[in-house]
Amino acid sequence: MQAIVRIFRNLRNSIAIPKSTFKGEDHLGNKYYERIADEKRKWKGYRFVKPYDGQSKANSELEIPTEWNAWLRNSRDNPPTIKEIERNYLLMMRTRQRALEVDTREEAEKLSSEANNEIATNLDSSKLSQKRPHPDFEDMEMKSGSARNFDYKDREKPIDRTVS
């Protein structure tokens, strides 16, 4: 008898559709729902989104606001409000504007520093055009593989290796 009751209960649970509650809608037209867990029927609770009519399901993931995405992934308990979404959008736009201002300021500073470097390089190039003699060290070879003739009297003197 218990086996028959269990079979009918499982059949009823498999046919029954769990009720989902509407939680909200975003500015794109996506609707968000939540199904509550039912321990008696062993149903897990979950959250899902129904995209608006003109949008495919694969593309809708790209167009879900961040706040709703956090709610769908159970990172937050309560669904976001319209005021919260608008406030976060304004913060995002202000941050983008400030980043644009910083980029333009850095670009201007970079251009001015490059101009200053060119002026400094032109001043230093006059000094570079003056030829200085290459240092010649007594203990080194004149040509590769050829020995240098040393004067033994000079060898006792310390070698001066400073470049002038």
Explained architecture:
The chain is mainly alpha-helical and 164 residues long. Among the domains are: 18-80, no CATH class; 81-119. Helices cover 46% and strands 10% of the residues. It is built from five helices and three strands. It has helices spanning 2-15, 57-60, 66-72, 82-128, 152-155; strands at 20-25, 31-35, 46-50. It has a three-stranded antiparallel beta sheet, with helices on one face. The radius of gyration is 40 Å and the shape is elongated. The N and C termini lie far apart (110 Å).
Major sheet size, sense and barrel closure: 3 strands, antiparallel
Rg, nearest Å: 40 Å
Provide the low-confidence segments as ranges. Answer: none
- Write down how many β-strands occur, each being a DSSP E stretch of 2 or more residues: 3
End-to-end Cα distance, whole Å, is 110 Å
Mean pLDDT comes to 77
How would you sum up the global shape?
elongated
The portion of residues forming beta strands comes to 5-15%
What key attributes describe this structure?
5 helices; 164 residues; 46% helix; 3-stranded antiparallel sheet; 3 strands; mainly alpha
Write the layout of secondary structure elements.
Blueprint: H1 2-15, E1 20-25, E2 31-35, E3 46-50, H2 57-60, H3 66-72, H4 82-128, H5 152-155
Antiparallel strand pairs: 1-2, 2-3
Summarize the structure.
This protein has 164 residues and is mostly helical.
